[in-house]
Structure to design on (312 residues):
């Protein structure tokens, strides 16, 4: 037996050929502690395959699963004034923005897009809780106004996915001003006779709940989502009483008439299609596999091109 050939050489080869294993291959469920493989978790829309716990999902991943073929077009959002108050706590506000942009790869806390779900054209907006807790600042206000204006222009329903810790403190009173601004934008959609559907995800709190998140024609929530203005801990400390079990969670609000339904993430698309087509007085969507739509059309065709051939 050759000790160098049979032991030393394989040992050296194993050391130099060892591959570094990425650290993000597994995710631990916050609810049940199960370790979930990243591909399996992504295929299940960031919902635990063991206990059904709904984890956070980015707006882009949500839209990729929502729109037909994962195809959507982003809607441009006007840029607000950067750091209007020159706010600084432990860091300067621009530094916090840059850190959040680097961590998420997104410009801000809300993404606005247009596309089709089961051949039903919509405009959608979604908040990203991983971007400074999805806090509502001037950009988020501009995004909702841009989404509402686009929906009215294209005569499409507006669907909004909320996830926020409330108003953005770095913008002070300017962030609170987004509450009436977004309320007016929602009213503009309703006056145009278009549906406005809100899907509340975990968590939706503060000024977001007190404005556009609770103004939907139909209110849908994901399971066990925290939906409130002031959190349960603050309320308990104020009234000095123990709150009921499940207080301010989606199922509790459904039982008390604050929501229309609680729907698992994988079923939200089907629910939205059914509700939207009913509100638009359209026939039910065709079930089964649909081909992916071609490039999204963002402007109506000219009247001359749309004219059909008349009878001879």
């Amino acid at each position: 037996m050759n000790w160098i050939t049979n032991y030393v050489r394989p040992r050296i080869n194993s050391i130099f050929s060892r591959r570094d294993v990425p650290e993000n291959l597994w995710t631990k469920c916050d609810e049940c502690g199960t370790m979930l493989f990243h591909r399996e978790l992504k295929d299940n829309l960031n919902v635990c395959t063991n206990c059904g716990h709904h984890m956070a999902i980015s707006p882009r991943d949500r839209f990729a699963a929502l729109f037909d073929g994962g195809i959507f077009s982003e809607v441009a959002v006007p840029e607000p004034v950067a750091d209007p108050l020159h706010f600084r706590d432990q860091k300067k506000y621009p530094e916090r923005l840059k850190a959040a942009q680097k961590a998420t790869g997104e410009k801000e806390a809300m993404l606005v897009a247009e596309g089709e779900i089961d051949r039903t054209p919509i405009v959608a907006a979604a908040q990203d809780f991983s971007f400074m807790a999805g806090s509502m600042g001037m950009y988020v206000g501009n995004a909702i106004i841009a989404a509402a204006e686009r929906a009215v222009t294209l005569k499409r329903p507006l669907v909004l996915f909320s996830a926020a810790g409330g108003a953005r403190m770095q913008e002070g009173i300017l962030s609170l001003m987004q509450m009436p601004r977004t309320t007016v934008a929602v009213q503009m959609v309703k006056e145009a006779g278009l549906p406005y559907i809100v899907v509340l995800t975990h968590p939706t709190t503060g000024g977001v709940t007190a404005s556009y998140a609770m103004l939907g024609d139909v209110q849908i929530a994901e399971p066990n989502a925290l939906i409130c203005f002031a959190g349960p801990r603050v309320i308990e400390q104020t009234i000095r009483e123990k709150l009921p079990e499940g207080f301010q969670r989606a199922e509790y609000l459904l039982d008390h008439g604050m929501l229309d339904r609680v729907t698992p993430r994988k079923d939200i698309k089907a629910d939205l299609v059914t509700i939207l087509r009913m509100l638009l007085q359209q026939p039910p969507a065709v079930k089964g596999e649909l081909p992916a739509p071609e490039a999204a059309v963002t402007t109506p065709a000219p009247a001359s091109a749309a004219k059909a051939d008349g009878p001879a």
Remarks:
- The longest strand covers residues 196-204.
- The beta strands are 26-28, 35-37, 73-74, 110-117, 120-127, 158-164, 196-204, 218-221, 261-262.
